[in-house]
Amino acid sequence: MALPFPLSHAKTFVLAGLLLASPLGFAADGNLIRQRANAVLSLMSYTVVPDITASDLNIGGGGNEKNSLSITQFGGGATMSEEFPIYLEGTLGYSRYDPQFVFSNGTESRKIPVKWNSLNATGGIGWDFKLHTDRWGGNLVLRPIANFTLGTMASDLRVGAYLLQQSRDADFKFLDGGRLNVYGLGGALMLDYELFSKSQDIDVELRYSKQELRSFDSSFAASGEANADNLGLYLRRRAPISDWTLLGKPVRYVMEGARTEYLGEQRGLLGFNSLNSLGLGLELDSSDYDVVISRTRLVARYMFGNNTTGYGIGLAMSF
Prior knowledge:
The chain is mainly beta.
């Protein structure tokens, strides 16, 4: 069983055109706080769908603020067997958004730093429908997937009595330990071509994903919603490096490429419409040993897109 998308840790730095981390220092009225809380919910949409290109984003908010927004995702998935081709996947996503608000009582004002953290887990279940087997032994399958998400967003601000005494607005009180729980339902449709042979392995995936996120059981006065909607293409080729063996098996080089096109609400939300990734790495085969992991891949990646550039390291495993 192979992971169709690798566990990865990549850093991408957005250079311009950022909606959620625009210049810091806002007037702290109830409507603005509500907008920012709902915006944090929108950040989850980048972590609920398996996505190599956006596996870890670190975005500055202007000035010396280099980590006003951070998004990280880890995940994996596999078809259980050819005889029973059920497909299971899962991702774990985390984001942190660090805006600042300016609170004023009419005579004085002060900056209030805020840290909103969100954590979500997504599961998926699908089924492989084999469409074609070519003369080289490659298989083309159609894979519909149903996805579900549970998550939470919380403020870890501790503003003390000063702020709470100035206003009884529930929107302000949300800043002091508020919480927003989230559920999501959606699905994906994937075309997957796989060719495994002694000379090379080829994997090509085209995936359309859509999920709707909704808040529930919130300590915040307003509810929120967001949609994840994107189209992703992933390509990978693995082949042995001549005369180089480790663990009794040839060492393989890995070449990969990926592109994610963001649609709907996600398009332009963080300053880009799409992200691309190019990767090169090595793979070790441990299948001759009595261990759970049969293959381990380490891949260096370069990422780029609209107003965006970055780099990363990805770790993937096959079982």
